[in-house]
Amino acid sequence: MNTSPHSSPSDHALAVLRELVAELGRGGGLVSPSVYDTATVLMFDVFPGARASIVPWLLDQQRSDGGWGLSSVPRARDLPTLASLVALHPYRELTPQVRRACEGGLAFLRNQAAHWETSLPDDIPVGLELLMPRLLDRASSLGLGVDWGPYRALIALGERRRALIGKARPAAGSAASHSWEGWGSGPSPDLLDVSGGVGHSPAATAAWLHASRDKVGLAAARAAAREYLLRASDATEVGIPGVVPTVWPIGRFEQAWVLYALRAFDLLDHPRLGDVARPQLLDLGAALRPEGIGMSDAFTQDGDITSTVIATLGELAAPRAIEALRRFERGGMFITYANELQPSLTTNAHAMHALASRGEKASEPARYLLERQQPDGRWVGDKWHSSWLYTTSQVILALSHEGQLPAVKRGLEALLRAQRGDGGWGAGGAPTAAETAYAVLALRAARRNRELESMARGAWRRGRDWLMSNHDIGAGQEDLRWIGKELYCPARVDRAWVLGALLASQPSWES
């Protein structure tokens, strides 16, 4: 983000943020390109004319160790690596580069076994237990020689998931339809939602197109699915048909999380943002149904987005909005989707925030979060985000509203210890703008207590100074931290957190 010679950094940040807020939901949202989903599109040859561009793009994403994906999140790497191997296999004799890529990928997977020796954590990628077995089948049919052994626990979990799916008979726009390529077979046109795709998933849609290729009477549905994939490709801004994100459209998710960031940083009523934020708030409020709200109006409602929307809307929410959140309550805890097998720390943190915004207590989620705090003060292992900095910041924000000062203090101490020498924060090999913004948010929560504020003030200043020079959100590997089938970056969301942190970190706090 470059500043003009006549404007301050904060003026420029405000201008960029105004434009971003006005564009929320446009084009179904902006999402980083996905190796797994793009490999699936190539695997099923959806766009034959784009092969010559998709293959080099996939090769460019391979890491030096032979695998695909972020090295600091090892369990998120098997799926994109195996999908790339299967997709590139037919082209392995075309060039030495493709052959070497396949050999490197196989060697990488052989070295992955150690990461699967322990029990499965809560933060495995979305649908992995369904997707890996199907891909392993396909790899075996190609004679790739990938060992199934390390994935035994994952395969067993997938069998449990398939049993639940079989009982539910998922419809279009359901959570299960998002991973249709891992369990589906019959390509019913009823699986396509109004976006034209299956489950808001490019990979599932590509698999559906492949399964329907010889079916009579599906010409219109197939045309809609192909058009969906072209529009999903546009959402990555890469410019290659078939290079697609891991989830799309995400219009309501984008809208909810950007406005939630502004709420968290106390910027919704900023005099230079209110006129663009309020129409978005009113639109979001109108979209909140008695059943809740989902990532788009065509996808099933979920407890996490419903929580953040209620917390964001505050007094603008309908009087009975909290009843929508109660639909996701199970034994005092809060789920994201029905029949989920792993709980979410941040969903419960956001539910606490939503309840606090309505003057209600949330003793069970608070107890759960307190129990999950690590001895070093962090919260780790959330199913929707791979960075402990995000998870810890969201929990600190929730617990600070509940007055849980001892736990908040230990969390802040963990953040202080993790701050880099240059002032930034990052869970991987380098600090990132988004993760530094999450830390800044948590440090701002310390303002409610004099002791905590004194402890956090110096770190907050260093974080602010680092962000002033390092606030770009790009497509680098370290920016891919949200957990879907693959790690991804919802670009407008992360940019809003960074811009919000910049604006909320102006020296006015010190006055």
Automatic annotation (TrEMBL):
Organism: Sorangium cellulosum (strain So ce56)
GO-annotated molecular function: magnesium ion binding; terpene synthase activity
Residue ranges constituting the Squalene cyclase C-terminal domain according to the UniProt record: 356-471
Swiss-Prot/TrEMBL GO biological process terms: diterpenoid biosynthetic process
Domain of life per record: Bacteria
Name this polypeptide is given: Squalene cyclase C-terminal domain-containing protein
Organism phylogeny: Bacteria, Pseudomonadati, Myxococcota, Polyangia, Polyangiales
Any one Pfam family match given in the protein's UniProt record, by short name: SQHop_cyclase_C
